[in-house]
Amino acid sequence: MANLFSVKDKVVIITGGTGVLGRAIATHLAEEGAKVVILGRKAEMGNEIVSAIKSKGGEALFLVTDVLDAAVLEQNLTDILQAYGRVDALLNAAGGNMPGATIAPTGTFFDLKVAEFQKVLELNLTGTVLPTQVFLKPMVEQKSGTIVNFSSMAAFRPMTRVAGYAAAKAGISNFTSFMATEVAKKFGEGIRVNAIAPGFFLTEQNRSLLTNPDGTYTERGQDVIRQTPFGRMGRAEELCGTIQYLISDASSFVTGTVAVVDGGFNVFTM
User: Is 11-199+234-263 assigned to CATH 3.40.50.720?
Assistant: First the structure.
């Protein structure tokens, strides 16, 4: 019987692939035999990740992108099809936050900067919609493919401070549900759309918010640990199994779901 979890020779695109989580996922999938396409803005970092993957016998390609520029994404698609001839999976991992879209502990809602709030919505939500529009096209022609969006704990329940980010991630969960039905009804069961909702993982974006320079947890970091039954932050590689499941045949009857990987954070109620 074929290995249901195999991703061998699948062409997998990862937006935001130069981040801590994207790099771990790209490295794992390449080790499993996937052809990984890393899309990001940091060419030096992207090429370094590709070199590391190739040094271990994996197959990878880096392309500079802008998830808010359809023309750039279309060129990315042209280059990917020229290199590999198909697209089997898209991981929409690009995203981020801005200070003006958050509310400081000593601030109020009136301190929210609407312009930065809109930028955060665009980066996270529109920055998922646009790549989906572009990279879905070859999947429709192939009648097969999988999309995995990146949601968040902030999509499930309101969290203090992160107003813009939370609104965007809630939108991504809703968009995932919408697209699951949209593509299945119009293009067939061969295309599936799901999301992953990581709990708290230390990244370059949240490190200063959750940890002090000496590595100890900030007050907010301590709050996270208190509400995580596992009593720790997640490790980037702990997302890889769920991602592999969602893009493999093991999840062939799974669409429209948001898979939670959070050490129990979302179910803790005390």
Answer: yes
At position 8, the amino acid (one-letter code) is K
Residue 199 to residue 41: CA distance in whole angstroms: 25
Residues paired with residue 15 on neighbouring β-strands, in sequence order: 39, 92
Indicate which residues carry an active-site annotation.
165
Structure tokens at 197: 């909702």
DSSP one-letter string for 76-97: HHHHHHHHHS---EEEE-----
Cα-only R_g, the chain: 18
Give the E-state strand segments of 94-186 in sequence order. Answer: 145-150
Q: What is the pTM of this model?
A: 0.95
pLDDT (tens digit, 9 = 90+) per residue, 189-232? 999 999 999 999 988 778 888 999 998 999 999 999 999 999 99
Q: Can you tell me the distance from the alpha carbon of 149 to that of 186, in angstroms, rounded to the nearest whole number?
A: 20
Tokens of 204: 């370059």
DSSP one-letter code for 234? B
Domain segments of the chain: what residues?
11-199+234-263
Alpha carbon 216 to chain centroid, angstroms: 27
- Site of tokens 């900030």: 218
Return the residue matching tokens 């640990």: 225
